[in-house]
Fold these 4 entries.
Entry 1:
Amino acid sequence: MKKIFVVALFFSYLPVMAQKKANPSSFAKTITADDLKKHLYIIAGKEMEGRGTPSPGLDRAADYIESHFRSLGLIPGNKESYRLPYPLYKDSMTAAAIKVNEKSLEINRDFQPAGLYNYTADMRFSEIVFAGYGIVDGEVDDYKDLDVTGKAVLILDGAPAGYKSSVSGIRSPSSSFGKYNNAQKKGAAALILVSTGFPRKLAAMTSQYSLNGYQKTMYPLMFSVSEEVAESILGDDGKNILTKMKTSPPVKKLYPSDINLSYSRSTTTDYASDVIGVLEGSDLKDEYVFITSHYDHLGKRDTVIYYGADDDGSGTVSVLEMAEAFAKAKAAGKGPRRSIVFMTVSGEEKGLWGSAYYTKHPVFPLDKTTADLNIDMIGRSDSSRKQGDSLNYVYVVGDDKISSELKTISESINKKYSRLELDYKFNDPKDPHRIYFRSDHYNFAKSGVPIIFYYDGMLGADYHKPSDTPEKINYQLMSKRAQLVFYTAWEMANRDQMLKRDIPLETPRGF
């Protein structure tokens, strides 16, 4: 009996050995320039209307992707559905008002509400805290010795002379958004920002869609007001306060003033979807390799369509072709050991929405996901790239993070099969474009999943322009890049062990 068992065990192991030794080249070659072109002229065609999130054009693109997954016999990725829907929220302001010492102010002439985070509320305060510029940054703390918990706070737009922000852009502590965050962290209930430019044009009544319909903590109500309003609140200390702050700033303290702040909004809910198809593995089917792209783009503005052929039609159709190649391998008895999840997400252009939703609500365990191979723009050449062969390269981003094994595997697979020039320009932590943080792989990386991001570097004249169209794609180069991703996924799906996760994720300030 013992001998028979050993023999049986040997023969049961043969299929796994065959899978590991199978040559993927014949299946990779089915990822052709002609097939990629056929798909892309549809995905980035006029009917899709730029695939904005959400939009009817995006839904039509999702229908096309789902139909392709279904034709290959892929398993629906979300129980019985290929769609993983997620909610989007749009707020509309219905009313806003401010009274100072019983005097009503006029919207757009005296004040404007900040509609991004404001919620329906009616607040009345008998005093307000003046906190200078409201900056908190290293040794600079305009809230020092001030208790603003549950109080209204008045601050000024701008920054003092000589101040150098530790973070640039919208997340700078001296930006309106940074000051808003500072006030929230200090516990303020309301924030009044004194700024120039009043009277102003009509305030936007409706916000953009947002994924964040529910907040962990409520932000303060925020309003911008004119210098004249500051004077009515602070008295003489508030007169010409933006100029006065440069020479003789008022003391940061409590000021008595009866202030009524009210804001009212209504919320509508819409939905967008990620599209997920799964090719089930064999002996390691409960572990997963993800191949991702985003199928959305910027949509249609008036009558102008932003086609998004390279960004990211190129990645989307590459996922479709890789799914077909893997399906053919499985039909030939050479399917992967691990399950492969082909996921095209929406909302990337709005803020990585689809991947953010997935990683917060994963269908498959993230700790059993060995890697995410993400493709975002692989159909063009970088005109600013001076070194090497512009027709035989791809930017590889993130392979040196999270797993010490990943870069070595990536390079060995490329050397064995594709022989592309692997350019690591955007792996540089000082990369001014911060490419590593700007596509859907980052949400997987934040969750501890090793990633590789494949990218062509196209940030030129056609980037986010209506001129990003299918006829400008280099389909031969795109097929070679897609084949590299296929070969790498093949290795990830068939190796004995999941990738190590032995490099701590470093998140820079501002993320």
Entry 2:
Amino acid sequence: MNCRTATIGKTVYSCRTCDHKHTIYRSCKNRFCPTCGILETFNWADRILNNLLDIKHHHIVFTLPKPIRNIQKRNSKIVLNAFFDAATQTLKEWFAIKHNCIPGIVAVLHTAGSDLKHHPHIHMIVSSGGLNCNDLSVKELQSEFLTRQRFIANKFKRIFSKKISSLHPKLNLGIALSKKSNFKAFLNKINKKQWIVSIQKPLANLEHIVNYVGRYSKRTCISEYAISSIENEFITLRFKDYKNTPRGQKPNYAFRKLHYTKFLDLLLQHVPEKGFRMVRYAGAYNSVYKKYIPQYSKTTAENIINDNVQWDEFPHIRKLDIENGKDDPLVCPNCKTRMVDKIVLFNRNPIRLNDP
């Protein structure tokens, strides 16, 4: 609630020629803050852009089957780690056998649907090719079609089931599934159904890919715009109604009115456990292979702001203003000169920073 207010602090830039000042209020950096989440997404996108292969990438989504979600709630870290491992192993094995290469994988966990229900799924950005297994040279697949979704789903099903079975002694399963034979029968019943994996056509523009997956990386499970109204003790949530939208069409919106206690229950179930990594890198994007990734050259408006002025946590605010055709906020509107003097007010204690 104190984000972007004087309570947290502010930075004041001033012009040396006239008395003009430009004030930016500091951020709270809380993951559940919608404003900070956007900025953190931009920062994350910038950090990984130079570490991706400059080739096509696919967006692939793995979904945890509904019967396993209750088990995941009681054994969050164990099951979600197995979920990550099984999904990445599925793709790495398939790429190695089919194309003799190591794919680059950025995996981001989401536990919520737009209606805040418990719906664990992993969004993956997967290179359409990767590093050749023989000499680690870059290899791009020519086809726009990767493989059949059901084939990957069945392979993922086998790998995950094997992993979760081996973890049975560590799981809190309750009386009904405490016996290994009962748990095995439970998995066999689930495995008779089709598991869901979605593979989309490749995206060619690397910056678009990074910005796309960035939406799932550093932001909370709900946007402030999803709350349509707050009246007395009730909150009305707007969400995408995929269930009642014809396939292939843009999703319709629906509304759900909740008492604030129910709303908070739904919201807080998606807060990850302390230390749990929601974003993971595998295959060619593991740090082991970093030296084999050719550096990607960025040519955006970011080059405009790569000067000697320290902009602390605000470079993307300035970058967005410039890209959207607004005046550079660091240029004095009166004198048209660069503002460089800064005073940082934090906990009501002013600190003057000399310009470089």
Entry 3:
Amino acid sequence: MISAAEPAVGIVSTSLPAAPPSEVVTAELVRRLSERLRDRHPEMRGLGHTVAAERLNADGSRRWADPAVMLGGGLYRYAAMARENGDLFYGVEQRLPLMGKERAARALATSNAVAAGTRLEARFAELRRDLAVSLFDAAAARMTTDLVAADVRWLETQVRLGRARVASGGDPASMVLRLENELDRRRLDWTNALARRADAEIGVERILGGSGDLTGGYLLPPVAETVPFGPVLVRFAERAEPEVLRREQDVGVASAAVEVTRRSQRPDVAVGVQSYHELATGTAAQGMLTVTMSVPWFNRANYRRDLQRDRARLASVEASVDDARQAVRREVHRLVTQIDTARREAVLMHDVVLPRTRRLLESLEGLWTSGRAELRELMDTRRQRVEAEMSEVRATGEYWVAMSELLLCCGLEDLETVRELLAEGKAGMEGEMKR
């Protein structure tokens, strides 16, 4: 059993790829990479075309309707009637923009263009958040892979030491069996961790448009301070959260649609000029100036229904804005709680559990090497250290993922801006209380 497993020792240490240069995920890194989103991400390109189309639609809104040209002829029983009335007539009629229908249509087109621009920027903010989350996931996956690889190398060292002690007759072969089984399990964990790390890095590439030009790995920054929950943060999030901004622009579009429908029941007024000529001689027989007006009487009930329909849609959009704002308040509280919880766990692991466990592990390693400690106690302590390191990485990743989502809600890019915002809000509230 021992000799069969011996060739496998050192697989991880010899087959580990050279570690690419690592970069800590910071706000500057996210900002630099997010500049590629506008040109490379397919959805951003599609939204950009939509914005261009809506702007062209707004710029192309008609201020005047196209004139109508008339041309016709007449047949008369007597030639004298043709000479007197004319048997060839032509004219032009122009609808006048008197009732504000064209202005309302332009306002609706402009509202659609503004809403499309808001949707573009809101989606860009969401993709920047997704990019930050993917970077933090990739960094956590890389650090987890490194921790597992370090554990594999440690176990390989212990297997070699255990075989030497078994060969010298000092320890039973079951001790090496346990080490080898643990080593094989950790090698499997390392292979799976590599797959998860590759998948996380592919997720980053996907958000960046699948360019495939990113090199190197990422590392998690240490956790920062907590963000206190309060009315200042909530108010700022309500004004800046992308979904709220999108729905507020939808309110503007719905309001413009109501105005278009309201003006559609007004009559259309047009002026026209007509001229009659005798075809045989080309002599002008008579001319006419006309004023025409549509009579929207028979469809008055239908116009009212159309207006009620659009007003109901407007009320629905306004209610959705209120719902989005309430959801933002709940989401901000959840994110602040998650940030605080993850930070406490990461600090506990880093400042208390890991130093204590490392000291005990170093002591046990020395005792086990000299044969004065049991393998079971050494393995249990080593497992506690690895679990604490994994917990710290996981909690740190959760901290920054929640922080990225909070920054998205508030429309901010980095934690420093949040600090300034809270400081300004606190100073403003204290000033109001003094007054």
Entry 4:
Amino acid sequence: MFDTEATGESQAPATVDAPKADTAKRRQLFVGLAGAVLVAGLGYGAWYALVGSHHVETDNAYVAADSAQITPLVGGPVRSVEVRDTQAVRRGQVLVALDDSDARITLASAEADLAKAERRVRGYFATDESLSAQITAREADQARAAATLASAKSDLERARIDLDRRKALAANGAVSGDELTRAQNAFANAQAAAASAKAAQVQAQANRAAAVGSLTANTVMTDGTTVQTNPEVAAARARVEQARLDLARTVIRAPIDGVVTRRNVQIGQRVAPGATLMQVVPIQQAYVDANFKEGQLKKVAIGQPVELKADLYGGSVTYHGKVVGLSGGTGSAFAMIPAQNATGNWIKVVQRLPVRIALDPTELKANPLRVGLSMTAAIDTRR
């Protein structure tokens, strides 16, 4: 009995001290938790002040590239298709070949027309020389006619003097009537010869004037040119070059390095100029369009560095780029059906503005991307 009471007396203080110990322990836990929260808050505040406030990030970003649409410049049936979808091609590589039979015939016809034009123009120059010689001959005829006219005038004057002398002598009977008649006839012949010589001179002048006019008209076709620079030859040569260019265009080549996609042309198909046959995507020149919220763009500027990650590679690959431009409008502004914000039921929506980010070609070569892949972009706005 004594032992039992003694034992009870000894256990009572322990029971009273237990709640105090639990309370102290909880207090210590709360203090520790508050301290941890405070440290975490301070750490986050320090991180945000030093780093986070100078970075803007979005996962609304996608890979893009300026793809080349392959369209024929001339029409015709497809003779062969040299590539397939997903195939990598180099600039200048043959993609599609069209049937070139018509183009070859057109080129041959144009070359024949050029040869005829050159011969025709050579004829113009030869005619110039011939007409120049004719003018020289007509000038000689004109000089001959002038001399003949001068001689005829001299004969006419001598015949007139003889006739006047015989008329004076005939009045005294010193000259017979027969001799007077011969003098009259000689004078009439001299008059006719003078008139004929004058007509010949007028004709020689007219012939020379005609030759000069013909030379002038022909010179218009050749003045200031050679056979090769003559407009007719130049026009025919241009048609030859056009035909040769159309023949070359029957072979369609890759304009850039890239990967073939969306090929929709088959052998035997007749294609028209401007029809899209395929696309070539220059994956080594890919870039990223990141759509940032308008509230994130206050400190974004061209030239700032960007870190990017692709969903394709996860967090194992980090790309480094830089901001090269900001779009001239938000995505909704250029949508096919833009938002009608003037209506009465308008609800404000945070807009996103595309930011163009250039990628490092070396990193792209090591870890290729494809158009449309998702990216996460973080811009360092401190610079």
